[in-house]
Amino acid sequence: MHPPRTTAVSSSDHLTRGEIETITTLERIGGAISLVAVCFIFVAYALVRRARNVQNTFIVFASISNVGASIACIIALDGLVLGEATSLCQTQAFLFEMFMQSDPWWSLAMAINVVLVFYFRTSPDSFRRWWWLYCLICYGGPFVIALSLLLIRNSPKGLVYGDAVIWCWIGGKWAGVRIYSYYLLILICIAGTIISYALVGYHVFRSRNRLRSFSVSKSREAGHSDHVSAADHSQSDGFYGTVTTEVLVTHTSASNLVHPKSAHTARHREPASFPGATLRSSADAAAFTSSVSAPPRRQDLRLLNPIHRTVSACKSVASKFSVEDPIKRAYLRTSLLFGLSVLVTWIPSSMNRIHSWINGDSPYTYQVASAAVLPLQGFWNCVIFFVTSWRAVKDDVMYRAGRMPPASHNDSRIGTLERTVNREESRASTDDEAESLHTRSDVELRAVEHTATKGVAV
What we know:
Helix content is 68%, strand content 6%. The protein is mainly α. It is a multi-pass membrane protein.
């Protein structure tokens, strides 16, 4: 039996023992999962060289703060059981105040860097020499706040760190301090992150529209006549036909010919063909049959399909926000995922504390939501790390397991930039092969026609 726990319950919105056990279980499970996930991040970052890019380095620094927050979550209600003035309770509150809010600070730092990359053309690698400044702000700011609250000892309200319902943190008598020293700063970080990504989206949309307008105007000026002639024959008429030519060559012995005729060469020019038209010509020694068939207009079929129109419209809108630079695209993707994880983590807890500040109580459902999502910061960081670096981690694991030769591991494509270059080279090679096949087909057709002419001459 733990008598102090009954006191904690009576002062903690009258939670039942079963509700307290549920909250404690959620806190410890989430904290343990995050702690293990953060260890995976550290191991992968240390062993996989290709995973040590700028965006993953931000995640690693944020994961360091997740270690302190996870330890505080694993402590759960043990600090309150021992007493608010005990070192365990004060330590848990300090860890929460410093490390729990450090994660949104790192998210805002990543968002600001994305703005610098897109608006000011700053290279992501240039941030490496400023790591000390990032650490000073994202760790130093929360540290100063947490230490200042810890040193307040002689206030008439008592200690700042105390009973916070589900763990030791800023006590209920200091509810205003909770808002101004914690949730207000977190909301500022979240708002700054959203604004930064909105600015980046606007910049990408505007740049894509300018690029398309410039490309269209240049193409119209350079090849207007060629474009019109090609459009008249292909797109305007919608003629995508199939031409099939059959060549039949017959040989007749000289004894069967009653009156041999002198060889002659005749030129024959086929008129323009229309769908369904058939042209036949015959000679004594050769027969040519050409048939032309045209399917329905491909463009008309697509316009009649509502699903195709919807998909095309969605692709058109999405393409306006696409980023061509693969390095910027990878950096933006990681930053967006990190910002989204911060939103998922902090919205329930912020709603809980704001409701408690306004109405004076904290519903049990809000407390359960806070206990379920707040300890999972490290887990979400781990998911983002391995989703964005899965190829590099997988190649390294295969190499260490002996399933990939050293040459393949060293020469593997690094990053999305080289994959894009290889894809473009492959596309160009495919076009060259298609052109070669087309030329070779023309040569073979001319050879067949030449053979047929010789047969006629014989």
